[in-house]
């Protein structure tokens, strides 16, 4: 018993140091340490070695604690979800701290799961080594492959693709597509085609089924993306600037990066302290889609906003990303999509309600429109936005159709028409 107590004491001490280093508040530290201590006590009473703990042990512990709560209070928690979150948050943080990974990697439970894991791992390497695709693209393609293999295994109960038919492909698309828009359905079809080409190229099917995947037709420039008007951008900037809290300083710098340069959200979340050269007033951007790297001038307003955030708003942390979460654990954002909620809130605070989407990308479209109206050539706009080809910039043209009569644009596919 003394060995168990000494182990628990050492683990809790390690967890306490981790929370302090991550700069959790004193109340959060006390709450997480209490939850972790109760969980270790439960494991000891159940004679479960800490090294052998599994997600099922966490589930059983929570079930017991929920029963004890009801017995003690005479009622269940007002919000079961909130109660469960407050308990699991501390336990999961504790287990990740002392184990390094939580939940543990799940071993395949049957031959089908083993086949799916092995095939997806090989597919990921193939996309990287043979196709040279960007990491985010590889993740999307591999995720679609996993969904298809899960569906196929449930309907076919086999760990081989030799028996796949066109009817199977059609059935999967019918099951996958009902709640999706046309553009999303086309994306599913494209990702599935890529996977089917891979399994054929590696000899897992006797026929290339990729051409049999049907996708909806999308007409060029058929949808109009939403873009903010200059007065709306100004309103968002002014409202956000008035918020001098750490979060406000952060969001104001992000809004200026969006409106001034038209950066993608992922490019902003990946900005690191090392990417800024204060001596020459420039910074480097790693384009998330193309993998390219651009250098941009640091305009005074943007530089001042960044300095204000770094000096008065950014939490003290060892991470190198510029923009940090406002609450512990202080780390960078997981992805560009993490900026959607803070930007949406800033739009709402300014009373700005775009007709379409209300995330960071609306600023990118607005920047493209302003450049078009200023007569900037399409190639230059594409370079600034980090587009690999001029065709990627073409969709932005439909946002300024009334201005195009007075702007000379290098539109792809129109070379040589002046000779007609």
Overview in brief:
With 420 residues, this protein is mainly alpha-helical.
How would you describe the overall organization of this protein?
The chain is mainly alpha-helical and 420 residues long. The protein folds into three domains: 2-99, no CATH class; 111-212; 230-406, Intergrase catalytic core (hpI Integrase, Chain A). Helices cover 55% and strands 3% of the residues. The chain contains 16 helices and three strands. It has helices at 2-21, 26-45, 55-73, 80-99, 111-129, 135-156, 166-176, 182-201, 230-242, 246-261, 265-269, 300-312, 340-349, 361-373, 378-385, 390-393, and strands at 276-277, 282-286, 293-297. It has a three-stranded antiparallel beta sheet with strand order 1-2-3, with no helix packed on it. A hairpin with a 4-residue loop joins strand 1 and strand 2 (282-286). Helix 10 packs parallel to helix 14 (361-373). It is globular and about 75 Å long. The chain starts with a helix and ends in a 27-residue tail after the last helix. Residues 404-420 have low confidence and may be disordered.
The H/E string reads HHHHHHHHHHHEEEHHHHH
Class computed from helices, strands and strand pairing: mainly alpha
- CATH homologous superfamily placement of the largest domain: Intergrase catalytic core
Can you tell me the CATH architecture of the largest domain?
A: Orthogonal Bundle
Number of helices: 16
């Amino acid at each position: 018993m003394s060995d168990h107590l000494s182990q628990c004491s050492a683990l809790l001490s390690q967890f306490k140091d981790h929370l302090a280093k991550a700069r959790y508040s004193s109340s959060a530290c006390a709450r997480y340490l209490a939850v972790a201590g109760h969980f270790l006590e439960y494991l000891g009473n159940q004679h479960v070695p800490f090294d052998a703990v599994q997600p099922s042990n966490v589930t059983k512990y929570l079930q017991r604690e929920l029963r004890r709560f009801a017995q003690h209070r005479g009622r269940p928690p007002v919000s079961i979800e909130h109660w469960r979150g407050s308990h699991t948050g501390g336990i999961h943080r504790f287990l990740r701290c002392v184990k390094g990974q939580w939940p543990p990697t799940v071993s395949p439970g049957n031959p089908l799961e083993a086949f799916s894991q092995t095939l997806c791992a090989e597919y990921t390497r193939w996309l990287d080594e043979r196709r040279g695709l960007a990491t985010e693209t590889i993740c999307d393609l591999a995720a679609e492959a996993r969904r298809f293999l899960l569906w196929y295994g449930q309907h076919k109960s086999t760990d081989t693709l030799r028996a796949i038919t066109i009817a199977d492909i059609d059935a999967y698309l019918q099951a996958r597509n009902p709640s999706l828009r046309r553009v999303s359905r086309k994306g599913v079809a494209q990702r599935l085609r890529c996977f089917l080409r891979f399994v054929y190229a590696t000899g897992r099917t006797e026929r290339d089924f990729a051409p049999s995947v049907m996708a909806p037709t999308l007409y060029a420039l058929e949808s109009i993306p939403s873009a903010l008007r200059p007065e709306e951008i100004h309103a968002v900037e002014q409202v956000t600037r008035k918020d001098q809290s750490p979060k406000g300083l952060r969001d104001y710098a992000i809004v200026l990066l969006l409106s001034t340069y038209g950066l993608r959200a992922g490019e902003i979340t990946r900005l690191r302290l090392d990417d800024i050269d204060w001596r020459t007033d420039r910074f480097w951007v790693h384009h998330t889609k193309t993998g390219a790297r651009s250098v941009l001038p640091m305009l005074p307003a943007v530089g001042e906003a960044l300095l204000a955030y770094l000096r008065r708003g950014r939490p003290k942390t060892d991470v190198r990303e510029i923009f940090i979460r406002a609450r512990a654990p202080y780390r960078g954002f997981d992805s560009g999509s993490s900026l959607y909620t803070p930007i949406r809130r800033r739009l709402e605070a300014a009373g700005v309600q775009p007709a379409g989407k209300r995330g960071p990308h609306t600023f990118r479209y607005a920047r493209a429109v302003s450049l078009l109206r200023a007569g900037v050539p399409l190639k230059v706009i594409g370079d600034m936005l980090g587009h690999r080809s001029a065709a990627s910039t073409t969709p932005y043209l439909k946002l300024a159709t009334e201005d195009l009569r007075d702007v000379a644009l290098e539109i792809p596919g129109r070379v040589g028409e002046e000779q007609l």
